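When time allows, look over one protein, given below as sequence and tokens. The question is which stretches look regular and which look disordered:
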Amino acid sequence: MENVPPPAEELRLIDRELVQLNFRRSQLLARRAWLLTALRAAGAAPAPVPARSPGAAAETSPPSAQNVLLTLGGVLLTIAAVAFTLVSWGDMGIGGRALVLGAVTATALGTPLLLLRRKLVSTAESVAALGLVLTVLDAYALRRAVLPGTDAVAYTAVAAGALAAVWAAYGRAVGRLRLPLPSAVVAGQLPLPLWALSTGGGIEVTAWAALATAGPDVVIALAARRRPVRALAVTGAVTTGGWSLLTGLWLSLSAESPAASTEPALLLLAAASLALAAAWRAPAAAAATAAVGGLATVAATGGVLRTTVPADWAVPAYLLCAAVLLAAVRAPLPRGVLTGLAVASGLVHLASALWAAPVALLALTGPAATLGDVWGGPPVHDVALPGAVTAPVALAAVAAVLWAAPRLLPAVPLPRPAAGCAALVLTWSAAVAAPVALSLPLGPTLAVQLTATAAALTLAARPSLTAALLPTAEGAGPKPGPAGPVAGAAGGGRNSDEASGGPAGPEAGRARADDTTRGEPVAARPEPPSRTLDPARALAGTALVCALGSATSAALLGLATRPATFTALGVLVALGAAAAAAARGLVRTVAACAAVVGTTGLVAAAAAAAALPVHHVGLTLLAVPAAAALLGARLGRHPVALPAEATAAAAGLVAVTLAVPHPPTLALVLALAGVVAAGTAVRAERRPLAGYVAAVLFVAAAWVRLAASGVEVPEAYTLPVTVPALAVGLLRRRRDPSASSWAAYGPGLAATLVPSLLAAWGDADWPRPLLLGLAALGVTLAGARLRLRAPLVLGGLTLALDALHELAPYVVQVVDALPRWLPPALAGLLLLAVGATYEQRLRDARRIRKALGRMR
């Protein structure tokens, strides 16, 4: 019985079922979307779970499982092949051996072709890997069976070359396999170096062989399309080429004659040519590759030139080659290559400057040895630095290149203000290092140091001179000149950017066209304000730092002999004064302060030359703050007045320090310093600070005088001062209610309370501490009643210290009677209590501070 419907009817039924299934699927998808929206609105949207068939959850994807199985299979087959070749090889005849290996290798290499037709790519890769391993085993078996007497290294070189060729041909024939071509690249690194080792030609032949291997690697890296092949070729080129470069450099540095340095130079030049060719064709790594080529070129030419000059001139020889290389930047080369050559030359210049820097550092720090034996003769430098004779030449050459490169070589990527500052520092370093390099005596060395200081100060004080040292584009403005790269670099504005590789080409043309269409000339549009440091100011600051360095070195060097001291300090004072008069801003301030320091040194040197005692030298130093006070009164509110007076005040501190060992002289120094401060306080702009300083100095002078005279009753001398001082303070408060209680009553109260407190601490009887405590209590109560801060604080402190003095013996007795563990325990409990009530204590402290703040 035939129940099958006709084909047309069956097709109609199937189409109707498919329509119903699509409709049902649309309904389910719409419902699912609504449910997800509702769950997201409720904040509990679950992650969609893919549908799975019943059973255990899969932990690996099918491709990963497939790869693992194929890899394990290939490894097992490889192990079996190795075991057969090493173990079972000797059990078979020559025919059987050839038949087995040939058949297995041909099968392993031919099977991937069939697998690729069936699109089993991963399986084909595994079988191809087995085939490649079998070819290696074939080569091993061939030597063991047929060529047992051949040299192992030579045979390995030939076998590696043959395998590389076979694998490369196989990979090209079977293009979809990823393993043969990278394997051919790896095998290709071995033939030439191994052949060189087998011939016994020495390290030179091996280096040439490695460089010859790097050449094809570069070609492959430039031509390969597959990333693994390109990466392995780059790695091989870097490894073999780098080894040959290092070998050539070592051979060049160890050569002792021009003939011996010729072959290393040729090797380095060949490597440089290869690197530059690679940089030309690979813009992505052009800068780094060209830099390596430039360094190899400098090493090659400098290595030959080094053998023809004395040993001290080796570094200048390399530096000359680097300067010539830098001139090649003007050649019409790709920008990446130009950048790499400039970087290579810059690295050589930097290394030369670092090599010569210790000589300049010795010239600056060596004079510090005179501090151990002032006026005992010039210091002797026992340290012999290699190449010290040519260090100034190297520094000056690097400075000249830094100064000229931004002007003559616009393609050099060098910041022009930084280049100007570095050139200035190097020129100054060459100047200060020249006396050490030439072993000049004290007089010429000091003259060079002072000349360098004068030149640096002149550049710092005259901005017009510093602007002239900068490139035209950022210094003195554009200058007319012929068209071309040099003129564009010196013309400023957009021309310099175009010449240095900036916005040139279509972008710059469109920018100029946009400016023209707006109806506004390019030159007429104002430039936005620059937020960077002014180049002229940066150069002036650099010159100032150099001047301070050489000035300090000259001052220390002048301590070698008495005439040199007065000469150096006198010249430095004159230079500082001249710079302070001619400069502006920070340079003027620093120069004025330096002149004050130099004057202080002159006064101290004069006192020492007169064989005065140390405390009398301190007395003579007060002439510096006195002269500064008179000069400040003359200058008024001039910007340089305050820094000069502050520096002179530091000289006054030195005077006080020197007078401390002799109390009578110390009292005199303090009194004279108080007179100078009081004279300064006459000026309105100095009154708030100088007045307090004068009062403190006068009171301190009185205390020191009393202590030096052995007075046992200081109140007889202090009370006659305190009473008039308090009366004057009372009158001032009546005339000026806003005056502070510290200014009105502080000096008068301190004049008596402090000496009495010192005397009470040294008095074993009870009347003096009792009377002082009563007086301090009265002063404290008066300050609290009248709401005056100075009496309250001074009286309270005096009362507390006096009470502590009286209780000290009893405290000592109690502490001696207590166990050793009790004081730490009490301290810990105290800390816990303080920590527990920390917030309340802060609140109390704020309240006390506010109460004191309301007082005057």
